[in-house]
Queue: 2 jobs
Job 1
Amino acid sequence: MNVRRLISGTAIAAATALGLGTLSACSTDSAAAANTDKFDVVASFYPMAFLAEQIGGDHVHVTSLTQPGQEPHDLEISAKQTAALQESDAVLYLKNLQPSVDDAVAQSEIKTKIDAASLTTLEKHGNEVGGHAAEHDDHENEELAGLDPHIWLDPVRYAEVAAGVGKAFEKADPDHAADYKTNTAALVKKLGELNTKFETGLANSKTKVFVTTHAAFGYLAERYGLTEEAINGLDPESEPSAARVKELEKMAKADGVTTVFYETLVSDKTAKTIASDANLRTDVLDPIEGITEKSRGKDYFSVQEANLKALQTALGTK
């Protein structure tokens, strides 16, 4: 699991105006990030912002604290962002993922605080290769005792979060409760259909094992009866040891692994090195922590479908 470097790549974009990246088409003026005539929602990063926009529809004005390509975990909220948060109607975040967000939310007087982590169940997922999960112990405090935050990659858990967010919106903005309920039901249904696509699409495959540069897909693997073998664990850019590479090569041969997956926004150097040594292919499996021009899709659903296709190819579906 990679919490410390959830997204590696471009440098943090310079904050403008209030420093909030406006995601909604409602307004392109970041100065209008809060205190609009809509239900103003501040989201911590893309998976939360996507839920808010899908559920809120035309009634909400959604802004994100994390810019595309920015590392969510390393986000440091500015004083202006904190002020904008105070003036918003609701905040949607994933507790224990971004310390600065947690602190800002705790100190704010914003009435509606929605913690996605409280709306579903979290589990521990470690690096499966050679039982290296023990290496994660050092980071237990900052990772909520090792609990995996990547709940949005499992459509079923993401749907549970969506249902909870919908109820919170209904309570906070009762004038539009009926629309929130309708939008939530539509989103949950669509996530259910995505779950079915994954279930049927991965049901008959030559292998159930896939290799990633870090353990971000534990929930997805668990949901569909797969095994994720992560090379680097917490840091996707670290160099694996010679022993780890040999171990991976042995495992890949035994389990019929064909592909080493890396992230869109992370260097493919490690993946290509290991793939070359083990005579494997490389491909992208996107953890969907932000949508950029490098993403294989324009939103959560299209990127997840691209992920499914990549897994089908790698696992050899019949």
Job 2
Amino acid sequence: MDGDLGDFLRSRRARIQPEEVGLPVHGRRRVPGLRREEVAQLAGVSVDYYIRLEQGRGPSVSDAVLDAIARVLRLDETEHTYLRTVARPRGRRERRPAAPRVRPGVQLLLDSMERTPAFVLGRRMDVLAWNALGDAVGGFSRMAPDERNMPRQVFLDPAARDLYPEWAAVAAQTVANLRIGAGRYADDAALCALVGELSLKSEDFRRLWADHEVKECAYGVKRVRHPVAGLLTLPYETLTVPADPEQTIVVYTPEPGSETAERLALLGSWESAHSR
């Protein structure tokens, strides 16, 4: 995923109008947002230095310079972290990353949450493990192993637009979260292949990927139209596994006594009886 740094910086400076940062505007501008020399001036670095940085051929860049550029481009905390990641990629290439495995203790933790849907995502947003109610909501056990991937499901499964009533918001969130992983694991061949496949097969993914939005989906609310349980409103929280920081536990946390909680209880009972 070469070129991420330059593409990201160009997309961010295109959002900032000169008058927003106190710069005079003279005549017609050929490009939207700030010019490279304007970013350099405001960040206190030479124009040549900034151009080389945006082209990905600059020297090792300091935190102070990245902080100054983040300030000029008004990056939020997630974008700032992403900038640091892509500006200083890992030096050692990861030829064959080990296949992700979920520890038995983590699976026991999932299974202990009998009334709460939960599952584990890996670095590529692959679904690595789940509990019974998580499976009842997501249907992971009925998918082929290579289909257990959230971006692939959102963009390549025709049923996704019916499954997610707010599909556009889910799609944008998915891409913004995937881009964080793409910056963090730039040498992951399987992750690069996933981005390539989605770019080739989905026009919506190509458009959203080109926006260079970065956002961690640490918590929020997802609405799911389940074929058995009906419409579910699912607040969620995510927890990083301390011993396996590339793995994230996603837990749906509906309000006790809510309609969704009642529907989940019925769904769990239905799935249990159906499986027997």
